[in-house]
Amino acid sequence: MVVSTVLQAAQGSLATASTSRLGSAGFHKEGLFGAQCRHRSIGVVGTRRSLSIRASSDMNSKDHEVSPNVLTKILQTCATCVAVTAALLTPLSATASDVAFQRGPAISELSVLISGPPIKDANALLRYALPIQNKPIKEVQKSLEEITEEMKVPGEKALGPVERSVRQAARVFNQNKAQILADIAPAKKQEAEQLLSSLEDGLQDYQKQLETKDRSTVFPKQKELLRLVGNIEEAMVSKFPFEIPEEFANRPLLKGRATLEMKVNVKDNPNVKDAVLQIVVDGYNAPVTAGNFVDLVQRKFYDGMEIQRADGFVVQTGDPEGPADGFVDPATGKVRTVPLEIMVDGEKEPIYGATLEELGKYKATTTLPFNAFGTMAMAREEFDNDSGSSQVFWLLKESELTPSSANILDGRYTVFGYVTENEELLADFKVGDVIESIRVVNGLENLVNPSY
């Protein structure tokens, strides 16, 4: 669907409604967050009130009547509005070719949205987000990750390509073991040597398992070996890779990663009672936001708090009782806020305080994208980029049709982690379910400047 088709479809949809009252919203689609889109602004409202995507314009017509001509003008001047309109008008069952945008004269900056299948696995996204450059270990990782696609072929036909991928991973590993070990941080050499030995043995075992032609063994062993690869890659990070800007340097910061366990009491669901999720928060790419969250976890801020939104698109919590929309620091008596914090691929440090759209970085790719079911991000006020505090949300989708940085979320909100185990349980959460506890199980030593 090209831009002109979007405009025509939008005009046709509004033709019969051009004299009806649409209120102050114009378009309104329940269940999506992002609050209001007034030309170039879409925001996640950090409060409990309803969140939606809405397009509106400066209207002179009585009672906010909207004509197709007005809508056309809006869409021709706002790439975001076009993307939102396409989402609203396109059936959910549409194919990729139905919803892909092509470059057109109306909006010169709107590039093709569909550029290839996005990485949707949270653990893979975290591996690729590490600040390392070792090519051999990345080749081992890639060969093992390709097994997921290869196993989509039914029956034993999939096992031939899987065996080739495992052999390729073992070959690259064996030929480059010294180069891999050379990039390990000096303080982590002993630990890494054990990991390398386990990976070598595991690759050999995997090849023997595949000889039995038993499909049931493929994914468990793949997960085990990729976990070892991820641990080896993390051992390659010798120090925190950049200096925190001075204005944020004294705040709680996570200079590395931390693994957390969140336990939720799910009410009125006989199939799920106590849901335990594992979350990895990433301070390499969002140290200020991740540090703020881990600091609040250590304060037990979220313990006993209810799920406050569960609309099929996001699960959200973090709004405390009382008039404040965020965490009130007892040391200052004021709400503690964090800046918008976006790491772009190829950059050495995050961008603070501005969306990628505001900076004109329309084609930039975020290091932590909204690709995975259970992507964790910081909610904020619609028109204030630096208003995040304690309200967080988890995305209940995977990026099927919209690759990284080509949707209305990437580059606008701070992603700082992913649910890496039992993420499917997020879909069972309802408003009123209670977070019994969130606790740090690994990586607390990476938190600096704690406030508790």
Automatic annotation (TrEMBL):
Work out whether the entry's keyword set contains rRNA processing: no
Keyword tags: Coiled coil, Isomerase, Rotamase, Thylakoid
Q: Does the keyword RNA-binding apply?
A: no
A Pfam family this chain is assigned to = Pro_isomerase
InterPro entries, sorted? Cyclophilin-like_dom_sf (IPR029000), Cyclophilin-type_PPIase_dom (IPR002130), CYP38_PsbQ-like (IPR048563), E_coli_cyclophilin_A-like (IPR044665), PsbQ-like_dom_sf (IPR023222)
Give the Enzyme Commission number. 5.2.1.8
Give the top-rank taxon of the lineage listed in the UniProt record for this protein. Answer: Eukaryota
The PPIase cyclophilin-type domain is annotated at: 277-452
GO molecular function of the protein, one example? peptidyl-prolyl cis-trans isomerase activity
Note the coiled coil stretches, chain numbering: 189-216
Q: What is this protein's name? A: peptidylprolyl isomerase
Organism of provenance:
Physcomitrium patens (Spreading-leaved earth moss)
Which gene is this protein's source? LOC112286976
